[in-house]
Amino acid sequence: MSTIPQVLDDVLYPKIEPYLEGMLSVSDHHTIAWECAGNPEGIPVIVIHGGPGGGSQPSYRQYFDPQKWNIIQFDQRGCGKSTPYASLEENTTNHLVSDIEALRKHLNVETWHVFGGSWGSTLSLIYGISHPKRVRSFILRGIFMCRRSELNWFYQEGASHVFPDAFEPYLNHIPKDEQHALISAYYRRLTSDDVEVRRNAAKEWTRWEMATSRLLPDPEYLDKAEDLDFAVAFARIECHYFINAIFVEEAYILNNTRTIEEIPTVIVQGRYDMVCPVKSAWELHKQLPNSNLHIIPDAGHSMGEVPIAKALVEATDSAEKM
Ligand code: STX
Protein backbone atom coordinates (compact mmCIF):
# COMPACT_ATOMS: atom_id res chain seq x y z
CA MET A 1 0.00 0.00 0.00
CA SER A 2 1.32 3.39 -0.94
CA THR A 3 1.92 5.81 1.92
CA ILE A 4 2.84 8.75 -0.28
CA PRO A 5 0.70 11.68 0.88
CA GLN A 6 -1.35 13.28 -1.88
CA VAL A 7 -2.94 16.30 -0.29
CA LEU A 8 -1.82 19.02 2.08
CA ASP A 9 -4.32 18.00 4.78
CA ASP A 10 -2.58 14.62 5.04
CA VAL A 11 0.69 16.20 6.14
CA LEU A 12 -0.44 19.25 8.16
CA TYR A 13 -1.96 19.40 11.64
CA PRO A 14 -5.71 20.14 11.83
CA LYS A 15 -7.05 23.68 11.41
CA ILE A 16 -7.13 25.63 14.69
CA GLU A 17 -8.27 29.08 15.80
CA PRO A 18 -6.09 31.48 17.82
CA TYR A 19 -6.60 31.49 21.61
CA LEU A 20 -5.51 35.13 21.82
CA GLU A 21 -5.33 38.05 19.35
CA GLY A 22 -4.35 41.69 19.65
CA MET A 23 -3.06 44.90 18.10
CA LEU A 24 0.29 46.33 19.24
CA SER A 25 1.11 49.97 18.60
CA VAL A 26 4.76 50.06 17.47
CA SER A 27 5.03 53.75 16.47
CA ASP A 28 2.87 56.87 16.17
CA HIS A 29 2.05 55.64 12.68
CA HIS A 30 1.93 51.82 12.76
CA THR A 31 -0.06 49.22 14.69
CA ILE A 32 0.60 45.53 14.08
CA ALA A 33 -1.88 42.68 14.36
CA TRP A 34 -0.72 39.53 16.19
CA GLU A 35 -2.15 36.21 17.36
CA CYS A 36 -1.25 33.17 19.43
CA ALA A 37 -2.53 29.67 18.68
CA GLY A 38 -1.89 26.17 20.01
CA ASN A 39 -0.80 25.62 23.62
CA PRO A 40 -0.31 28.79 25.74
CA GLU A 41 2.22 26.81 27.84
CA GLY A 42 3.87 25.31 24.76
CA ILE A 43 7.24 26.06 23.21
CA PRO A 44 7.11 29.51 21.63
CA VAL A 45 7.67 29.89 17.90
CA ILE A 46 7.43 33.11 15.94
CA VAL A 47 6.19 32.64 12.37
CA ILE A 48 7.53 35.27 9.98
CA HIS A 49 5.56 35.65 6.76
CA GLY A 50 6.79 36.37 3.25
CA GLY A 51 6.58 39.17 0.72
CA PRO A 52 7.34 41.53 2.42
CA GLY A 53 3.67 42.44 2.45
CA GLY A 54 2.26 38.88 2.24
CA GLY A 55 0.57 38.87 5.67
CA SER A 56 0.14 35.99 8.09
CA GLN A 57 -2.19 33.12 7.17
CA PRO A 58 -4.39 30.81 9.28
CA SER A 59 -2.87 27.77 7.52
CA TYR A 60 0.58 28.61 8.94
CA ARG A 61 -0.70 27.42 12.34
CA GLN A 62 -1.02 23.91 10.89
CA TYR A 63 2.73 23.40 10.48
CA PHE A 64 3.04 22.84 14.27
CA ASP A 65 1.73 20.26 16.75
CA PRO A 66 -0.81 22.41 18.63
CA GLN A 67 -0.32 20.42 21.88
CA LYS A 68 3.38 21.20 21.92
CA TRP A 69 3.75 24.66 20.41
CA ASN A 70 2.71 28.18 21.29
CA ILE A 71 2.38 29.48 17.71
CA ILE A 72 2.82 33.24 17.43
CA GLN A 73 2.19 35.16 14.18
CA PHE A 74 1.94 38.81 13.24
CA ASP A 75 1.27 40.92 10.16
CA GLN A 76 4.30 43.04 9.24
CA ARG A 77 3.83 46.81 8.89
CA GLY A 78 1.22 47.79 6.31
CA CYS A 79 -0.19 44.34 5.50
CA GLY A 80 -2.80 41.85 6.68
CA LYS A 81 -4.75 43.38 9.56
CA SER A 82 -1.94 45.78 10.51
CA THR A 83 -2.66 49.50 10.04
CA PRO A 84 -2.35 51.78 8.15
CA TYR A 85 -2.94 49.54 5.14
CA ALA A 86 -0.14 49.41 2.53
CA SER A 87 1.76 52.30 4.18
CA LEU A 88 5.38 52.66 3.12
CA GLU A 89 6.24 55.27 5.74
CA GLU A 90 8.56 54.12 8.54
CA ASN A 91 8.57 50.75 6.85
CA THR A 92 12.10 49.30 6.69
CA THR A 93 13.82 46.05 7.67
CA ASN A 94 15.07 47.60 10.92
CA HIS A 95 11.56 48.65 11.85
CA LEU A 96 10.35 45.07 11.34
CA VAL A 97 13.21 43.67 13.46
CA SER A 98 12.32 46.02 16.29
CA ASP A 99 8.62 45.10 15.96
CA ILE A 100 9.53 41.42 16.47
CA GLU A 101 11.38 42.38 19.65
CA ALA A 102 8.45 44.55 20.79
CA LEU A 103 6.09 41.61 20.28
CA ARG A 104 8.42 39.21 22.12
CA LYS A 105 8.48 41.54 25.13
CA HIS A 106 4.75 42.18 24.92
CA LEU A 107 4.08 38.43 25.12
CA ASN A 108 6.70 37.84 27.86
CA VAL A 109 8.67 35.40 25.75
CA GLU A 110 12.35 34.96 26.70
CA THR A 111 13.52 32.91 23.70
CA TRP A 112 11.70 31.34 20.80
CA HIS A 113 12.09 29.27 17.64
CA VAL A 114 11.99 31.31 14.45
CA PHE A 115 10.12 29.95 11.42
CA GLY A 116 10.08 31.75 8.09
CA GLY A 117 10.08 31.19 4.34
CA SER A 118 11.14 33.33 1.42
CA TRP A 119 11.17 36.96 2.66
CA GLY A 120 10.28 35.33 5.99
CA SER A 121 13.71 33.62 5.83
CA THR A 122 15.40 36.95 5.05
CA LEU A 123 13.77 38.68 8.00
CA SER A 124 14.31 35.67 10.31
CA LEU A 125 18.04 35.72 9.57
CA ILE A 126 18.38 39.49 9.96
CA TYR A 127 16.41 39.34 13.23
CA GLY A 128 18.70 36.53 14.44
CA ILE A 129 21.84 38.48 13.50
CA SER A 130 20.58 41.40 15.63
CA HIS A 131 19.25 39.28 18.53
CA PRO A 132 21.01 35.88 18.40
CA LYS A 133 20.40 35.11 22.09
CA ARG A 134 16.64 35.14 21.52
CA VAL A 135 16.67 32.44 18.83
CA ARG A 136 16.51 28.77 19.93
CA SER A 137 16.50 27.48 16.36
CA PHE A 138 15.72 28.56 12.83
CA ILE A 139 13.36 26.63 10.56
CA LEU A 140 13.71 28.25 7.16
CA ARG A 141 12.27 27.61 3.71
CA GLY A 142 12.94 28.96 0.21
CA ILE A 143 16.01 30.95 1.18
CA PHE A 144 16.03 34.53 -0.05
CA MET A 145 18.87 36.89 0.86
CA CYS A 146 17.68 39.68 -1.39
CA ARG A 147 21.00 40.33 -3.07
CA ARG A 148 21.05 42.14 -6.42
CA SER A 149 21.58 38.83 -8.23
CA GLU A 150 18.48 37.33 -6.60
CA LEU A 151 16.28 40.33 -7.42
CA ASN A 152 17.59 40.45 -10.95
CA TRP A 153 16.93 36.72 -11.41
CA PHE A 154 13.28 36.96 -10.49
CA TYR A 155 12.15 40.46 -11.46
CA GLN A 156 14.32 41.18 -14.52
CA GLU A 157 15.84 38.18 -16.27
CA GLY A 158 16.31 34.56 -15.22
CA ALA A 159 13.00 33.03 -14.15
CA SER A 160 11.75 34.63 -17.38
CA HIS A 161 13.66 31.95 -19.32
CA VAL A 162 11.66 29.18 -17.60
CA PHE A 163 8.29 30.95 -17.54
CA PRO A 164 8.27 33.10 -20.71
CA ASP A 165 4.47 32.76 -20.93
CA ALA A 166 3.83 34.11 -17.42
CA PHE A 167 6.58 36.70 -17.84
CA GLU A 168 5.11 38.29 -20.97
CA PRO A 169 2.18 40.13 -19.34
CA TYR A 170 4.43 41.26 -16.44
CA LEU A 171 6.93 42.65 -18.98
CA ASN A 172 4.39 44.10 -21.40
CA HIS A 173 2.66 46.07 -18.67
CA ILE A 174 5.73 48.34 -18.83
CA PRO A 175 6.53 50.43 -21.94
CA LYS A 176 9.62 49.38 -23.95
CA ASP A 177 11.74 52.34 -22.89
CA GLU A 178 11.41 51.37 -19.21
CA GLN A 179 11.78 47.60 -19.59
CA HIS A 180 15.51 47.61 -18.81
CA ALA A 181 14.69 48.30 -15.11
CA LEU A 182 11.41 46.58 -14.25
CA ILE A 183 11.50 46.99 -10.46
CA SER A 184 11.88 50.79 -10.82
CA ALA A 185 9.19 50.90 -13.51
CA TYR A 186 6.75 49.01 -11.27
CA TYR A 187 7.67 51.16 -8.28
CA ARG A 188 6.65 54.32 -10.17
CA ARG A 189 3.25 52.78 -10.93
CA LEU A 190 2.69 51.21 -7.51
CA THR A 191 3.27 54.61 -5.89
CA SER A 192 1.26 56.58 -8.49
CA ASP A 193 -1.42 59.05 -7.35
CA ASP A 194 -3.86 57.29 -9.67
CA VAL A 195 -5.50 54.37 -7.87
CA GLU A 196 -6.20 52.51 -11.14
CA VAL A 197 -2.54 52.70 -12.14
CA ARG A 198 -1.58 51.32 -8.72
CA ARG A 199 -4.11 48.48 -8.89
CA ASN A 200 -3.25 47.39 -12.43
CA ALA A 201 0.45 47.31 -11.65
CA ALA A 202 -0.21 45.40 -8.41
CA LYS A 203 -2.19 42.77 -10.28
CA GLU A 204 0.55 42.10 -12.87
CA TRP A 205 3.33 42.10 -10.28
CA THR A 206 1.46 39.65 -8.05
CA ARG A 207 0.33 37.39 -10.93
CA TRP A 208 3.96 36.91 -11.94
CA GLU A 209 4.94 35.81 -8.46
CA MET A 210 1.94 33.53 -7.96
CA ALA A 211 2.37 31.91 -11.40
CA THR A 212 5.95 30.91 -10.63
CA SER A 213 5.65 29.81 -6.99
CA ARG A 214 4.85 26.15 -7.51
CA LEU A 215 6.32 23.30 -9.47
CA LEU A 216 2.78 22.42 -10.58
CA PRO A 217 0.48 25.42 -10.97
CA ASP A 218 -2.51 25.74 -8.64
CA PRO A 219 -5.41 27.89 -9.92
CA GLU A 220 -6.46 28.75 -6.36
CA TYR A 221 -3.05 30.26 -5.75
CA LEU A 222 -3.31 32.38 -8.90
CA ASP A 223 -6.57 33.85 -7.57
CA LYS A 224 -4.55 35.67 -4.91
CA ALA A 225 -3.51 38.19 -7.59
CA GLU A 226 -7.18 38.93 -8.32
CA ASP A 227 -7.74 39.89 -4.66
CA LEU A 228 -6.73 43.54 -5.05
CA ASP A 229 -6.70 44.24 -1.31
CA PHE A 230 -4.02 41.58 -1.02
CA ALA A 231 -2.19 42.46 -4.26
CA VAL A 232 -1.88 46.21 -3.62
CA ALA A 233 -0.27 45.78 -0.19
CA PHE A 234 1.88 42.85 -1.34
CA ALA A 235 3.16 44.50 -4.53
CA ARG A 236 3.67 47.99 -3.05
CA ILE A 237 5.50 46.78 0.04
CA GLU A 238 7.66 44.25 -1.86
CA CYS A 239 8.62 46.80 -4.47
CA HIS A 240 9.38 49.45 -1.82
CA TYR A 241 11.74 47.05 -0.03
CA PHE A 242 13.41 45.86 -3.22
CA ILE A 243 13.98 49.30 -4.73
CA ASN A 244 15.72 50.15 -1.45
CA ALA A 245 17.75 46.91 -1.41
CA ILE A 246 15.86 46.04 1.82
CA PHE A 247 17.67 48.94 3.55
CA VAL A 248 20.77 46.88 4.33
CA GLU A 249 24.18 46.56 2.67
CA GLU A 250 24.60 44.08 -0.20
CA ALA A 251 25.14 40.49 1.08
CA TYR A 252 24.46 41.60 4.66
CA ILE A 253 23.33 38.12 5.73
CA LEU A 254 26.28 36.17 4.32
CA ASN A 255 28.68 38.79 5.71
CA ASN A 256 27.25 38.37 9.22
CA THR A 257 26.64 34.62 9.64
CA ARG A 258 29.30 34.46 12.39
CA THR A 259 26.74 35.88 14.82
CA ILE A 260 24.26 33.04 14.20
CA GLU A 261 26.52 30.10 13.35
CA GLU A 262 25.85 28.28 16.65
CA ILE A 263 22.07 28.37 16.25
CA PRO A 264 20.57 25.02 15.13
CA THR A 265 19.11 25.61 11.68
CA VAL A 266 16.97 23.53 9.35
CA ILE A 267 16.63 24.69 5.76
CA VAL A 268 13.91 23.24 3.53
CA GLN A 269 14.38 24.15 -0.11
CA GLY A 270 12.61 23.08 -3.29
CA ARG A 271 14.98 22.00 -6.05
CA TYR A 272 12.81 23.75 -8.65
CA ASP A 273 12.22 26.95 -6.70
CA MET A 274 12.05 29.59 -9.45
CA VAL A 275 11.41 32.53 -7.08
CA CYS A 276 14.38 31.84 -4.81
CA PRO A 277 16.73 29.40 -6.57
CA VAL A 278 18.48 26.78 -4.44
CA LYS A 279 21.90 28.45 -4.86
CA SER A 280 21.12 30.85 -2.01
CA ALA A 281 20.13 28.00 0.33
CA TRP A 282 23.36 26.25 -0.60
CA GLU A 283 25.50 29.33 0.08
CA LEU A 284 23.81 29.91 3.43
CA HIS A 285 24.14 26.25 4.46
CA LYS A 286 27.87 26.31 3.63
CA GLN A 287 28.34 29.18 6.05
CA LEU A 288 26.25 27.76 8.90
CA PRO A 289 28.04 24.72 10.37
CA ASN A 290 25.02 23.92 12.56
CA SER A 291 22.57 23.79 9.64
CA ASN A 292 20.88 20.91 7.85
CA LEU A 293 19.80 21.52 4.28
CA HIS A 294 16.96 19.44 2.85
CA ILE A 295 16.71 19.88 -0.90
CA ILE A 296 13.26 18.62 -1.87
CA PRO A 297 13.55 16.96 -5.30
CA ASP A 298 9.93 17.48 -6.40
CA ALA A 299 8.96 20.99 -5.31
CA GLY A 300 9.17 24.68 -6.15
CA HIS A 301 8.94 27.68 -3.84
CA SER A 302 5.65 27.42 -1.97
CA MET A 303 5.13 26.04 1.54
CA GLY A 304 1.73 24.89 0.26
CA GLU A 305 3.39 22.19 -1.84
CA VAL A 306 2.96 18.79 -0.19
CA PRO A 307 6.64 17.69 -0.17
CA ILE A 308 7.73 21.05 1.28
CA ALA A 309 4.97 20.98 3.91
CA LYS A 310 5.93 17.44 4.88
CA ALA A 311 9.58 18.41 5.39
CA LEU A 312 8.58 21.50 7.39
CA VAL A 313 6.35 19.47 9.71
CA GLU A 314 9.17 16.96 10.20
CA ALA A 315 11.42 19.89 11.08
CA THR A 316 9.02 21.40 13.62
CA ASP A 317 8.36 17.94 15.13
CA SER A 318 12.09 17.56 15.79
CA ALA A 319 12.86 21.22 16.65
CA GLU A 320 10.63 20.90 19.68
CA LYS A 321 13.45 18.92 21.37
CA MET A 322 15.95 21.79 21.01
N1 STX B 1 9.20 37.44 -2.53
C1 STX B 1 9.02 36.11 -2.14
C2 STX B 1 8.13 35.95 -0.94
O1 STX B 1 8.53 36.19 0.17
C3 STX B 1 10.29 37.69 -3.39
C4 STX B 1 6.78 35.54 -1.18
N2 STX B 1 6.28 35.19 -2.32
N3 STX B 1 4.96 34.90 -2.11
C5 STX B 1 4.71 35.06 -0.85
O2 STX B 1 5.82 35.45 -0.25
C6 STX B 1 3.39 34.85 -0.14
C7 STX B 1 3.13 33.38 0.02
C8 STX B 1 3.40 35.51 1.20
C9 STX B 1 2.27 35.43 -0.97
Explain briefly what this protein structure is.
This protein is an alpha/beta fold. It has helices spanning 8-11, 93-106, 119-130, 148-155, 164-172, 182-190, 195-211, 219-222, 228-243, 252-255, 279-287, 306-319, and strands spanning 18-25, 31-38, 43-48, 69-74, 112-117, 135-141, 265-270, 291-296.
What topology emerges from the helices and strands here?
Layout: H1 8-11, E1 18-25, E2 31-38, E3 43-48, E4 69-74, H2 93-106, E5 112-117, H3 119-130, E6 135-141, H4 148-155, H5 164-172, H6 182-190, H7 195-211, H8 219-222, H9 228-243, H10 252-255, E7 265-270, H11 279-287, E8 291-296, H12 306-319
Parallel strand pairs: 3-4, 3-5, 5-6, 6-7, 7-8
Antiparallel strand pairs: 1-2, 2-4
Bound molecules: ligand STX.
How would you describe this structure to a colleague?
By secondary structure, the protein is an alpha/beta fold. The chain has 2 domains: 8-147 and 248-319, Rossmann fold (3-Layer(aba) Sandwich); 149-246, no CATH class. Helices cover 37% and strands 16% of the residues. The protein has 12 helices and 8 strands. It has helices spanning 8-11, 93-106, 119-130, 148-155, 164-172, 182-190, 195-211, 219-222, 228-243, 252-255, 279-287, 306-319; strands at 18-25, 31-38, 43-48, 69-74, 112-117, 135-141, 265-270, 291-296. It has an 8-stranded mixed beta sheet, with helices on both faces. Helix 5 packs antiparallel against helix 7 and helix 7 (195-211) packs across helix 9. It is globular, with a radius of gyration of 19 Å. The mean pLDDT is 96. Bound molecules: ligand STX.
